[in-house]
């Protein structure tokens, strides 16, 4: 594809299945001067899988602020930076927001290369209303704050989507089962991977299931709106 336009290129990467990456994304990763990533070891395996040799530089929640001046200077000098996260679209519950903001503020080019998204994959296959929807990122670790957020979700007139740890899922479902035991809930687990699972039911039913069979892997949690459309019959 030749030399990349100087600036920042946000590249979506697989959320599980290594084959879920676009040709354009691969072309950009091959052509970029620098590839900024959360974990150089993790991203190194992805690049090796696709036979891509790239100059990797770490950019994560701990060092993003310190990296920004270096990356901006590189772009101002005509360089290109590809930004990737460990999975999915950079900046969506992942590092990169501050870098994008600083790049825009500096009058430099910003481009998005679309691809896999756990949010949209889970929503599309959930069986719940898809528009509008609310995405709240990771649920709070502290139980009180989590209960407040879940209570708000139960009151929304749209589907609510969150990321949750498998270690907290049972506690989260217990909160939902107490506050809205009959509300439809979907647990999407290990999306695009070998053991992908969509578990659908009321909050109470899913709580009983996961109490017996503790969940593993990455979890996307979806909560139905307060008023369900007539077509929603499961």
Write up this protein.
With 234 residues, this protein is of the alpha/beta class. The protein is built from eight helices and ten strands. It has helices at residues 23-31, 40-49, 64-76, 97-105, 118-126, 143-155, 169-179, 203-212; strands spanning 7-11, 34-37, 56-58, 80-83, 110-113, 133-138, 159-164, 184-189, 197-202, 219-223. The strands form two sheets. The protein has a five-stranded parallel sheet with strand order 3-2-4-1-5, with helices on both faces. Strands 6-7-10-8-9 form a five-stranded mixed sheet. The radius of gyration is 20 Å and the shape is elongated. It starts with 6 loop residues before the first strand and ends in an 11-residue tail after the last strand. The mean pLDDT is 96.
